[in-house]
Each structure stands twice: as structure tokens, then as C-alpha cells.
Amino acid sequence: MPIRIALLRSMVISRHRVTGADVEALAEAASGTDARAVMATGNVLFRSRRSPATLAKDIEAACKARFGQPTEIIVKTGEEWRALVAANPFKAAAKKTPNRVLVWIMREPVPPNGISQLRRRAHASEQITRLASGDFYIHLGMPNRDDTKLVGGFGLNHIGAVGTNRTWTTVAAITKALEEMEEQGH
């Protein structure tokens, strides 16, 4: 059965810090099987034949039922995830400083004006690359990730986009879990 990767935009919902058990339960509430949380950042892999769009809506509804309000959910297929990983334009930086390479995983493509807005906020050492899929990568070139204006204070909602970001460290952990699930089959 196909593997899906669901990513929560927020880890705190109605003042509740979402746990691995919570994200597994959300996936199962949307008829997912073999749910496995990855790290403590709102990531869950599971098996389902249902479309990513349907799963995102159903997991958001399960989130609202469980916590009293939803958070945006982005669901990708295993193939989409592998393509996203392969498209990393900052592979050398990801090896050297994985916490300074961010991947923005989008529900729909981020519009070009959103990338333009980000580039205006960027420090000279920061790079942004939009993929054909509409997802995008950011390399935080500055030594201190907390100094960036690209992550904090920039909401995609005001430009009409829904997405969430993960560091390369988290992307690598999700990819490893995906490979393990694929090896186990089902």
C-alpha cells in the first residue's frame, strides 16, 4: 500500500503540544495504517490509498475533533517526497550545516510574488530557490539561524499559500523512515 507523509504546520494546537502518539492517532483517524511519527515536529508516515488532498482534509478534521481546532496539514506521496529531496539545490550546505537548510513543503505551489517577498526580507548571505513543484528551499547563510528574518514573522497565509518548513535534519529523518517503510513493504 502506498506511503503518505503528513506534516502539521503547528505543533501547538489549542495550547496542547502535539506528541508523536497524537500525530499517529490523527493519521489513523483518516483511515491511515502503520502510522509512524518521526521526530517531535509533527511528522507522520502512514499507508493509505487515499489522495493527499483528501487525507489533508480528513486529518485536519480529526485534528479539530481531537483538539478543538485544526492546523494546516500538508500530505505528500512517497514519490513527491523523494523528488523534493532529490531537488535540494543546497546539497553541500545540507551536509555541512543541515540545520541551516530549510525546506518549505507546500500544499499548492507558492506564488512567485511570495518568493519575491521572501527575497526582499533575505540577508545577503541567504539564498532561496523555488522548485518547479512550488515547494522551496532556503539556505540560511548567516552563522546564527535566529538572526534571519525569513522564518519568523513571515506567514504564507497572507499570500494565499499553505505550507510548513523543516530543517534538512528533519527531512533526512523522514526520508530514512520512508526508506525503512518501503523496505518492510506491505
Give structural notes.
The chain is 37% helix and 24% strand. By secondary structure, the protein is α+β, with helices and mostly antiparallel strands. A four-stranded antiparallel beta sheet has the order 4-5-1-6, sandwiched between helices. It has a four-stranded antiparallel beta sheet with strand order 8-9-7-10. A two-stranded antiparallel sheet has the order 2-3. The radius of gyration is 16 Å and the shape is globular. The termini are close together. The model has no long low-confidence stretch (mean pLDDT 88).
What key attributes describe this structure?
alpha+beta; 37% helix; globular; 4-stranded antiparallel sheet
Quick description:
This protein has helices at residues 20-29, 52-67, 78-86, 91-96, 112-121, 168-184; strands spanning 3-8, 12-13, 16-17, 33-38, 43-47, 73-77, 101-106, 127-130, 136-139, 163-167. It is α+β, with helices and mostly antiparallel strands.
Radius of gyration: 16 Å
Q: Tell the overall outline.
A: globular
Structural class: alpha+beta
Share of helix, binned: 25-40%
Widest beta sheet: strand line-up: 4-5-1-6
Which regions are unreliable across 5 or more consecutive residues at pLDDT < 50?
Answer: none
**Can you summarize the main beta sheet?**
4 strands, antiparallel
Number of strands: 10
Would you tell me the overall average pLDDT?
88
- Summed up, the helix count is 6
> What amount of the residues lies in strands?
15-25%
Q: N-to-C terminal Cα separation, in Å?
A: 6 Å
Order of helices and strands: EEEHEEHEHHEHEEEH
